Amino acid sequence: MSEIKFSKEHEWVIVKDNVATIGITQHATELLGDIVFAELPEKGSNVTKDGTAGVVESTKAASDVYTPISGEVVDTNQSIVDDPSKINSDPEGEGWFFKLKVKDANEMNTLMSRDEYEKFAKETPS
Amino acid sequence: MELKKTALYDLHKKFNAKFVQFAGYEMPIQYKNGIISEHNITRQKSGIFDVSHMGQLFIKGDKTLTNKLQNIFPTDLENLPTNHSKYSFLMNENGGIYDDLIITKIKDGYMIILNAACKEKDFKIIKSKLDNTFSMILREDLSLIAIQGPDSKDVLEQIVPGVSNLKFMSGNEFKYQSDFIYVTRSGYTGEDGFEISINNKDALKFTELLIKNGSNLIGLGARDTLRLEAGLCLYGNDIDENTSPLEANLKWAISKNRIKENFPGSKKIQSQIIDGVKKLRVGIKPEGKIIARESTKIFDENDNQIGKITSGSFGPSVKSPIAMGYVDNTYSKENTKIFLEIRGKKVVANICKLPFYKKNHYKGEINVRN
């Protein structure tokens, strides 16, 4: 399993056997507040690094979810559609969004480590 | 312009509020538990809302003032007993709403609670319509604190004995320490509750006492989901200078014996009563979980636009997305199927009855929502 990586758009990604699991970060859930709606990409669709791959809505506002790397969507987490509060309670676990068949493993090198991301998140105004 | 702060600002900070700009004020949108939990606490127990940004207008005068005010507001003030309140509007000549407000008859005149964003403008309009002949003050030295939810009566009774005898939409002066406070049984959440007008210097200690007795600070975020579930309008979203009380489905707030009389916009109201309205404010429930926010376009089954959403969110107590908006009157019947355009897709929704959530107020026969 790869090291967990983070994007500037507040997504996390971890790769195992060339399949990436993607979700939004704890910091993102804190910015959003209570999440009440999640929309996921379609299974079988192709998504491109930094492109839109879903939507989350909190009581306050809607936000796009971007994919930190490119690939083909091979699985989506329907349980967060049924119970979006899972994203708040366990963003890096039960609250994952979708899985991709990785197109270009090198894209992982453009992302931040946990330490780098935490520093970035702290400096980003909420 | 520097943002104004209420007397409770430091208390909000102490309770880890996230702040937003609202009508020139720095106001708490939520505290650390978040909007849904604050919403539920208010419905199940008791919540405190700092609404000190709202205008507290006091006008002194006797019967002459009452007559003059009846030329400004479509409300029967002549028969309004002292210490009773009515929901009313300040309207333009075209029947559009400058502001929605609560008028309370007090012993030496009237107290009118105005929306924060409208209060300066309202003051000017009312002052000019009264020909500067009455003493009028927008009291910046007073805070306004609302306490809402089923336990609020018991929380407040411990601090201000006697308040639990107040009926809905009535008020009175109460002694609090060395000063007087004015308490009305009212609010904007659909729950039983009170609004307390209190000197800024006493507001902090008073609110700390409410918290100590079991109530909880609630931000503007939950205030919005609570009022939306209760089917109540947010000025600037659901009503404005281009909507009339009839279009807003608020005809009940125009006193029956005043409908044929003269007040700003009365001609428009009278013609809308005869001819009907073209658009009407309705409740809307999207099917599924998707949320329709303000400005979402509404279509009929043939793809003709028939209206627009003016408020929309998730309703934590009804546990589904809810919205209000205006539709062409021919589509305003309950259970009419409509289509909402959300992020390029058409989502099915249904017109439904307001409010989404209803509880009975104390002595419900004078319930503001009938």
Descriptive account of the structure:
The complex is a heterodimer of chains A (126) and B (370). Chain A contains 4 helices and 9 strands. By secondary structure, chain A is an alpha+beta fold. A 6-stranded antiparallel β-sheet of chain A has the order 1-2-3-9-8-5. In chain A, β6 (52-58) and β7 (62-66) form a beta hairpin. Chain A is globular. By secondary structure, chain B is of the alpha+beta class. Chain B has 3 domains: 9-52 and 140-229, Gyrase A, domain 2; 56-138, Alpha-Beta Plaits (2-Layer Sandwich); 251-352, Elongation Factor Tu (Ef-tu), domain 3 (Beta Barrel), CATH 2.40.30.110. Chain B contains 8 helices and 19 strands. In chain B, α2 crosses α7 (220-229). The longest helix of chain B has 13 residues, at 200-212. The termini of chain B are far apart.
Walk across the major sheet of chain B and give the strand order.
10-11-12-9-3-13
Q: First CA to last CA of chain B: what distance? A: 42 Å
The CATH architecture of the largest domain in chain B can be given as 2-Layer Sandwich
Major beta-sheet overview of chain A:
6 strands, antiparallel
Topology order of chain B in helix (H) and strand (E) letters: HEEHEEHEEEHEEHEEEHEHHEEEEEE
The greatest inter-chain interface is formed by: A-B, 15 and 18 residues
Helix amount of chain B: 10-25%
Structural class of chain A: alpha+beta
Number of helices of chain A: 4
Unreliable segments of 5+ consecutive residues of chain A: none
Poorly predicted parts of chain B: 364-370
| CA-based gyration radius of chain A | 13 Å
Order of helices and strands of chain A: EEEHEEEEEHHEH
Q: Describe the main β-sheet of chain B briefly.
A: 6 strands, mixed
Describe the secondary-structure layout:
The complex is a heterodimer of chains A (126) and B (370).
Chain A: E1 5-6, E2 11-16, E3 19-24, H1 26-32, E4 35-39, E5 46-47, E6 52-58, E7 62-66, E8 71-76, H2 78-82, H3 85-89, E9 98-102, H4 114-123
Antiparallel strand pairs in A: 1-2, 2-3, 3-9, 4-6, 5-8, 6-7, 8-9
Chain B: H1 9-14, E1 18-22, E2 25-30, H2 35-44, E3 47-50, E4 55-60, H3 63-70, E5 85-91, E6 97-106, E7 109-114, H4 119-129, E8 136-138, E9 142-148, H5 152-159, E10 171-176, E11 179-184, E12 193-199, H6 200-212, E13 216-217, H7 220-229, H8 266-275, E14 279-286, E15 297-299, E16 305-315, E17 320-328, E18 337-342, E19 345-352
Parallel strand pairs in B: 3-13
Antiparallel strand pairs in B: 1-2, 3-9, 4-7, 4-8, 5-6, 6-7, 9-12, 10-11, 11-12, 14-17, 14-19, 15-16, 15-18, 16-17, 18-19
Helix pairs in contact in B: 2-7
